[in-house]
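I had to read the description of the data format several times before I understood it. The format is easy to grasp once an entry is in front of the reader. For illustration, here is how one protein appears when written out as sequence plus structure tokens:
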Amino acid sequence: MDVNVEKDSHLSSVKNALRILQSFTMDEPEKKISELSAALGLNKSTVSRTMTTLASEGFVFKDPETKKYRLGLSILSLSGIVSSQMDIYRESQPVLNRLVDHIGETAHISVLDHLDVIYLQKVECNHPVRFLTHIGKRNPPYCTSSGKVLLAYSNDEFVKQVIERGLQKFTKKTITNPQKLRIHLKEVRENGYASSTEEILEGVTSIAAPIFDYRGKVIAALSVVGPNQRIQEHKIQGLAKKVVAAAKEVSTRMGYRG
């Protein structure tokens, strides 16, 4: 292939990708391939190939139920602008601040991105302990409290994908049996919260609850994390009530009427 032709082809692909990303708006946050094709005047095959590439890099995400695409969280890694403008970031901030002040442990807001749980927001307590968590950090969902909450409210196909990727054993308490994980996720949904004690890191316990949007769909998880010396087993249920209450407040702020 002629060098100039190849260069023009690459530039055209980049331009198409940028046009697609820019076509997503607050009024139209989700779109199908056919809608993008019609709006941008591009062949469906071109749009489909471009979306597959963008999805593989985390710049877009395909909803398995609606088959629509929306912007992905890799954009968050490039700029804090997305994070600062996200409703959940804005609405959860005061709730997280009060929760951390009240219970004295670090709190997070997390979401699913591909087959990982990713931290969108973090509010440190006054006596933080290094847990290797930070905004943008990714963890497997099956061994973290926030991830288990998000899995519990996901469809069976997504849970299957997580299991098929492999349930790595991080500690002796990590759930690595698919059937046990499915049973556990059912219990999480019934209880309305999840806890994880030394399932991904020894000496660490976390507790999480779901955040719902105006459609009644779980879009994120609110979690608190701390050392076992402070979050002892007999305290988990009491702390869980406070985490659930905080998550419900964020849900209400997001338009959920339950």
